[in-house]
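Researcher: Going back to the complex we discussed earlier. I've cleaned up the inputs and rechecked each line, so this should be the final set. Can you rerun the prediction on the complete assembly and write out the structure?
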Amino acid sequence: MKAAGLLIGCLLFAAAAPAQQVKWNVEKLAARASNNVDIELNGSLLRLATGFLSDTDKDEAQAKKLISGLKGIYVKNLEFKQPGEYSEADLKGFRASLRAPDWTRIVGVHSTEEGENVEVYIKNEGKSIAGLAIIATEPKELTLVNIVGNIDLDALSDLGGQLGIPNVTVDKKK
Amino acid sequence: MNLEDELRSALRRRDPPPDFTARVLKSVAPRSARRPVRPWVGWLGALAASLLLAAGDLGYRHYQGERAKAEVLQAIHIAASKLNVAQKKVQMISHRSNS
Amino acid sequence: MPGLAPAKAAELDFASLVRRHQAMVYSIAWHILRDRAVAEELAQDVFLSLHQHLADLESPEHVQFWLRRVASNRALDVARRRQRRPMLSLESVPEPAAMSQAGDPLLGAALRKLVAALPPKPRAIVVLRYQEDLDPAEIARVLDIPVGTVKSQLQRALALLRGKLARSMGEIRI
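Model: Rerun complete. Updated structure for the full complex:
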């Protein structure tokens, strides 16, 4: 199966078994960050947010659909003033929480030009997805995303072009 | 035209909705009010108190809800943008291997 | 209130404080966030906190300072979180259609929109300067930032706003 198909295939299945939040400790790194976004939305906060997301606004309606049934969304995004503020050892520590057999790395991409790496992991419970984790690094930025529950990767990818997310298109060479 | 004067005019204070004060006072009332509860309506008093608390909490809950909504949208934005980077790379590799 | 002279206790009576300061608190939130619903709820939240901290405040002037500080910083907190969402940058806000009258309500609306497109901190500085008529030293105390930062950010914000308006209205003198 092509890697692209793995990523963009529709992965909606029946409700997953209870899944756990990945615990990432970024305290020391956060202390060095010039900007720190720390989002922790458990099940009840997501349900609360659902009540406030509009059905008529396209962006919000899509987001509402995406988060329905999720058990948690956790995002840590750290920006640093200079490169080198986090190490490979730090990343190893984050990856240690995403080990087989529970977790499978489905994509790992590296851009030497931009120095941008993205690793995508999914947590399987039988045939269902019980979680998604992303570790994304740039020289001056580190992003950790953990979504607990049955996430529709297709729908998440489809948000390209909405919410201001650039649409991913690849020019086909003739 | 003087920009500073125009800014003062544009940014002058405005009143919140007419019921704002009442809502604020209502939301603090359960903490400050002393209600004598007769023993024979004890359970009614408890029910009334919990309803008042719920009503008072609604305003703060609305703020929490709006805040949770903003965080959901921000989180999705971050997650989707990183997924898109990965997707773009994967598609490039796919196209290269097909060509 | 124990320990306070009756006049002071009356001054610090919570209900009268809400009535006296609600326009200030609400307007700070609204001009920084440009979202009436969130501004209302934030303002309510600020007064709830005031109720909890009233015993710590020593005078009517202290109350006013405290309210400005808490309202501004909480609004900034929300604005910074929203900033990560794709928002209109000041550069992309269309210039207002040509207007000639000072006090023109359309100009007022255009200015509010331009101010709302400023980054959060300069936005808060402009709001405190022109809504609350605070001088840079007072703004620095409210936001707990250096006076130099207030002055330079205010200058830059005005230059940006002036530029946008000047292109539609001709020379603007301050």
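Model: Worth noting: Chain C has a mean pLDDT of 81.
Researcher: Good, that matches what I expected from the previous run.
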